């Protein structure tokens, strides 16, 4: 039995991990259907699987099969074979951005998370490892709709994911943002804010998606407020779907973070970094 706990709530409702895992498996089945329609074979440990076989896999085996397949496909081929979907998604975001009205309130997808015995330092180490690995395997295990991941300098990430579980995968350029981009007032006790603006990777258009995750230390863990904000012109299904996307990916990320075991020096280094970041929160 794990010596840590992870609790999620959305819109005032506690979300059980069994619900999150059920949603995760359903999205694996969705991606298996996508690959099947495109004639892209998926293999598990070198053995090609039929669609029926894929849908009989456990969640653990489904993760391995899709991650192995994506790693073998590689980044360049992934972008090439999904070009039609990326083009359609570009058009969708261009329409959303065109009709966005800055005078209207943003739609919000907020997910509250609390952990026991998983620290903010452990989470930072996990994030650092994700960027350092910079491959397709690990992001795929975090969420089945992570098609592509490329970590760049300064915290920038170029990704392909089905944003909000809505229609086609999107090709996005995520750029860290400062206080001026915060869509809501930060909590007074935040220790770290991870905020970013989102652009189309193909042409640099501002999609008007804003991400803002607020993280707080507590004596035996941390509290997190995950936030994604979209203009009123975006379909509401994206906001509702992205709540589940956040829960799936953060649940997996926290389980991986729990396996990080920082030594004394690492703890001191990350705490120093956190202290510096906290001093700069409102700059």
Topology:
Blueprint: E1 5-10, E2 13-15, H1 17-37, E3 42-44, E4 47-49, H2 51-56, H3 59-73, H4 75-81, H5 83-98, E5 107-116, H6 120-133, H7 137-142, E6 146-151, E7 157-161, E8 170-176, E9 192-200, E10 206-218, E11 221-230, H8 236-257, H9 264-279
Antiparallel strand pairs: 1-2, 1-5, 3-4, 5-11, 6-7, 7-8, 8-9, 9-10, 10-11
Helix pairs in contact: 1-3, 1-8, 6-8
Total discrete domains: 1
CATH level-3 fold name: Alpha-D-Glucose-1,6-Bisphosphate, Chain A, domain 4
Please give the number of β-strands: 11
What characteristic shape results from the CA principal axes? Answer: globular
Largest sheet, spatial ordering of strands: 2-1-5-11-10-9-8-7-6
Cα gyration radius (Å): 19 Å
Average pLDDT for all residues = 96
Order of helices and strands: EEHEEHHHHEHHEEEEEEHH
What does this structure look like?
- The protein is α+β, with helices and mostly antiparallel strands and 283 residues long.
- The protein has one domain (5-279): Alpha-D-Glucose-1,6-Bisphosphate, Chain A, domain 4 (2-Layer Sandwich).
- 43% of the residues lie in helices and 27% in strands.
- The chain contains 9 helices and 11 strands.
- It has a 9-stranded antiparallel beta sheet, sandwiched between helices. A two-stranded antiparallel ribbon has the order 3-4.
- Strand 10 (206-218) and strand 11 (221-230) form a beta hairpin.
- The longest helix is centred in the last third of the chain and has 22 residues, at 236-257.
- The N and C termini lie far apart (43 Å).
């Amino acid at each position: 039995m794990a010596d840590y706990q992870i609790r999620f709530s959305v819109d005032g409702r506690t979300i059980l991990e069994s619900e999150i895992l059920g949603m995760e498996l359903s999205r694996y089945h969705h991606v298996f259907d996508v690959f099947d329609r495109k004639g892209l074979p998926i293999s598990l440990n070198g053995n090609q699987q039929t669609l029926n076989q894929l849908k009989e896999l456990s969640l653990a085996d489904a993760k391995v099969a899709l991650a192995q397949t994506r790693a073998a496909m590689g980044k360049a081929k992934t972008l090439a074979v999904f070009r039609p979907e990326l083009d359609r998604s570009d058009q969708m975001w261009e329409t959303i951005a065109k009709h966005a009205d800055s005078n209207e309130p943003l739609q919000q997808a907020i997910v509250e998370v609390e952990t026991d015995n998983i620290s903010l330092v452990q989470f930072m180490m996990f994030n650092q490892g994700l960027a350092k690995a910079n491959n397709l395997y690990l992001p795929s295990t975090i969420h089945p709709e992570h098609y592509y991941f490329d970590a760049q300098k300064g915290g920038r990430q170029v990704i392909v994911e089905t944003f909000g579980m809505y229609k086609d995968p999107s090709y996005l350029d995520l750029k860290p943002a400062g206080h001026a981009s915060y869509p809501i007032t930060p909590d007074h006790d935040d220790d770290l804010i991870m905020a970013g603006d989102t652009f189309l990777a193909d042409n640099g258009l501002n999609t008007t998606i804003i991400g803002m995750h607020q993280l707080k230390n507590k004596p035996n863990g941390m509290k997190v407020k995950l936030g994604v904000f979209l203009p009123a012109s975006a379909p509401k299904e994206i906001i509702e779907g992205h709540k589940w996307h956040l829960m799936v990916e953060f649940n997996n990320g926290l389980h991986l973070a729990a396996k990080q075991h920082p030594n004394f020096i690492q703890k001191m280094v990350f705490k120093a970094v956190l202290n510096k970041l906290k001093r700069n929160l409102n700059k």
